[in-house]
Amino acid sequence: MTKNRYWRLDRNPEGNDFDSALSLVDGELPPLEDGQVRIRNEYLSMDAGTRMWMGPREDGYQPPLPLGQPMAGLAIGRVTESRDDRYPEGTMMRAFGQWADYSTIVPDEAWAVALDESVEDIRDHFGALGLNGWTALHGLQDVIGIGEGDILVVSAAAGATGMLACQAGRNLGARVIGIAGGPEKCSFLVEKIGCEMAIDYKNEDVAKAIRGFGEKPTAYFENVGGEILDAVLPNMALRGRIGICGLVAGYDLDEPMPGPKHFDKILMNRLRVEGIFIPDVPERGPALYETLLGWLREDRIFLPFDETEGLDNTLVAYNRMMTGKNIGKVIVKL
Question: Where are the transmembrane segments (predicted)?
Fold first, then answer.
């Protein structure tokens, strides 16, 4: 039988102590069952939302992973065995698989797609053309309703989804303010991504900086929650729109996050607040992809990669992403 190394979730992590919660173990691949596909992983995607799967909370948008099971996550790789005629051997795929040498999936349960290999850099199927890109564009177009003249604030703007939201907002006609941690990230957002202003939340008063822009934001793409949300809410324009894509400030909590300090501003300023969750709208995938592919080919959108090599270094990459050491998309090359 074929050997397969995989990361196993042994216990719920405390904070960012992933080394004590996951272990790299050796196993063997069982024979495929009807409807299953096996992928030799080439890249793994590190995504903040998977932190919730590691915890015990049952009230998230995904149930927690059972302890003792392989850690799940998005992967790109080539099919080595298949018992699904739609995905024959040799197909390059993206799917929710396992942090492992091989992913064994049921395609319809794993958001599996066959990839267009004419795209020059296959990693872009994790980047601008991947679920981060889909989420950013869906959130801006369909949930927030971004248009010409909007003033858009994006939190975690130097992360994968945030950086793509900044560029998509700019392409849709908005003036963009990015919030990120540190001068290097903020310079990148202004010089490379096209943000009109970037706010360094580690060294600036975020609320004061937003007021200093001169015009109130009409839209907010939220990835963080907590103190950042508290700084943005009271500065929103009348009838502003807020799309909540992520709440990374609370992903390591075993209890619900405290409510925002300025919750009353939703009433006072008649704000509209809605969650963004791309699995709700699978039918939007093809249209979102075509728009993003057009922008990619026109050099109107891009995403840098923070790449770590080796399955054994997966937790190094994951910790970089969870502690904000990255600019762009964190991935692992196997």
Answer: none
Burial of residue 124, with CB atoms counted within 10 A of its CB: 0-12 exposed, 13-18 middle, 19 or more buried? buried
Quote the CA–CA distance of 73 and 66 in Å, as a whole number.
14
pLDDT, tens digit (0-9, with 9 covering 90-100), for 129-151: 999 999 999 999 999 999 999 99
Alpha carbon 184 to its chain's center: 21
Q: Please give the distance of CA 283 from its chain centroid, rounded to a whole number.
A: 19
Cβ 154 vs Cβ 221: under 8 Å: yes
CATH class of the region 132-279: alpha beta
CA nearest to 265, candidates 231, 295, 296: 231
Helices 160-171 and 131-138 cross at an angle (nearest 10°) of 50
DSSP code of residue 128 = T
List residues bridging with 44 in a β-sheet: 75, 332
Pairing of strands 37-45, 329-333: antiparallel
What's the pLDDT score for residue 165?
A: 98
- Single out the residue of 296, 282, 294, 295 nearest to residue 142, CA to CA: 282
Domain boundaries 3-127+303-333, CATH class? alpha beta
Which residues have CB under 8 Å from 174's CB, separation 6+?
146, 147, 148, 149, 150, 151, 152, 219
pLDDT tens-digit series, residues 180-225: 999 999 999 999 999 999 999 999 999 999 999 999 999 999 999 9
Compute the distance between CA of residue 215 and CA of residue 9 in angstroms, rounded to an integer. 47
pLDDT band at 105 (very low <50, low <70, confident <90, very high): very high
pLDDT at 251: 81
What's at 186, amino acid-wise?
C
168 alpha carbon, distance to own chain's centre: 15
Beta bridge partners of 329: 305
How confident is the model over 231-239, as a mean pLDDT? 98
The DSSP result for 275-307, as a single string, is: E--GGG-GGGHHHHHHHHHHHHHTTS----EEE
Task: Delimit the domains of the chain by residue range.
Answer: 3-127+303-333, 132-279
User: Is 138:292 a contact under the CB 8 Å cutoff?
Assistant: no
Q: What is the phi/psi pair of residue 124, to 5°?
A: -65, -15
